[in-house]
Write the structure tokens for this entry.
Amino acid sequence: MSKILKAILLPALLLLSLCCMGQLRLPRLVSDGMVLQRNTELKVWGWDTPGQHVSIAFREVTYLTKASPQGSWEIKLPSFGAGGPYQMVISGSEEIVLEDILIGDVWICSGQSNMELTMQRASPIYTQEIATAENPEIRQFNVSTRYDFKNPQHDFDEGEWVKATPETVLSFSAVAYFFGRSLYEKYQVPVGLINTSLGGSPAEAWMSEKALMEFPKHFDELQRFKDDDLIDDIQKSDNERIGAWYNTLQEKDAGYANTPWSTPDLNTDTWPSMRIPGYWADQPIGNVNGVVWFRKEISLPPSTKGKPAKLLMGRIIDADSVFINGSFVGTTSYRYPPRRYDVPAGVLRAGKNILTVRVINSSDKGGFVPDKPYTLSIGNQTFDLTGDWKYQLGAEMEPLGPPTFIRWKPGGLYNGMLAPLFNYSIKGAIWYQGESNASRAKEYRTLFPAMIRDWRTQWNQGDFPFIFVQLANYMEARETPTASDWAMLREAQLQALSVPNTAMAVITDIGEWNDIHPLNKKDVGNRLALAASKLAYGDDLVYSGPLYKGFQKKGNKIILTFNHTGSALKVSGEALKGFAIAGKDQQFVWAQAKIKGDQITVWSEQVKDPVAVRYAWADNPDQANLYNQEGLPASPFRTDQWEE
């Protein structure tokens, strides 16, 4: 069958099959336990036999309609106040009874991995919050990963509304949960969280084909990926290339050639040593790719013999397999997740134990990420695993290029993970994304506002509140002022506040220099909720940290003014830091700064004729300490536009 014929016939056949089923069907969102948006007209929709009469009985009123010739139907319900639980009876060719329906506030929670990151992932710092997460009025609907480059989808393949409990909350988005919890504690209104996010996704993946027409490069790429054969060819090529690399690695790995290097009594006297954590690029073997084996002897007291344990191996680049006394205890296939392994009872011995870690690195610097926990915990005893480890190169390989992440291509996630939501009334949206667009900050200045406008057009609910997270501090801090892609992206996010009814949560004070996924999601959620209190609920409060307004030059000093100063500007610490100043030569140096009322004076003895100031302008502005008295950090900014 030709591509053109398939494109015409397959959707028609699918629609025909749905129409001829003679069965009432509802979208996944319209299901038991759903949270409906209060104080607005609601739409309930579905499918049934063409011409079939359909009714909805809800709160002692019955609403009627008839399925279209294509088999679709919808019924509009009037506005309701918060409350529940309620029952809804939908009747057509059959009857469906929906139970436990709440009416409250529904929020779209979207973005990339920092929105996707679950309470399970953040659990080491939120044990109490998880243990007390019993709240049936906070619910999440998690949208499963799906992309489509041809047509906006009408439903999801799976998904259900889940109440927050100590068990279920582990699968909630951590940012979304803390956001929802903060709103519930303040307003005592049911909260529905629709988590539609995907790690690594760029903003253009969440935009409609029409919106992408403003961005020809992305629009053209969307057209390319409408070709199923192209996708099949790419996936086949990637699978063959990556599979061949790993097969060759396995064949070459000396650690599996004869006696496995995970064997406890292996003689490693001739193996060199290196300090862990660290990277083997800094060792004599250099920055090679392939597989490197690491071994460490651990001496344990008799009281630990045979007991289960918890092994924390920080973060490892890229993949690892871990053995204790020759027994396999865990593996992780990529660099970002924390390594948390359960050691079964009976593996550990009194006295000498051998911990072996096989590390595969396909590109960049391989090794153990610093400033992460490397410990073995047995009961109330914890043993430090940092220090000298033996290591040996198992196999050297040429670098392996990454796969083609088709799911991130323009328009795909919009069609697959966003479009099925547009009939569902919402309160607003929260958004945590930007890392994947950091190298294209200039484009993001127009791309991100276009995305917000696109969403608002599709939901047809006016300028609903759209609240986003500015990028956290990340990567190694620099000793001198320098250019920064992440600072440029933060600036693009700051500029997006010109879009009506938007707000931004600044979090450059709660990131982790060595982790693109900082665990502190509670403060992120709470700061988003604070902004929502203003935008969505109309509370009169300080919801933002200081935002740069303008400057004027006075002699050898520059005077800065700000919006959102709250009750007053404040320095966290003894003196303001993070400010840099430059003259016409565009050479920035660290500057002195002092708060004077709602203004800040900036100067440096090295710059006699200053023309520009930057604040927190770095990947990791770890020195930045400007806040308002309400404890909200100032957004990074610059007064110049030199790096364009």
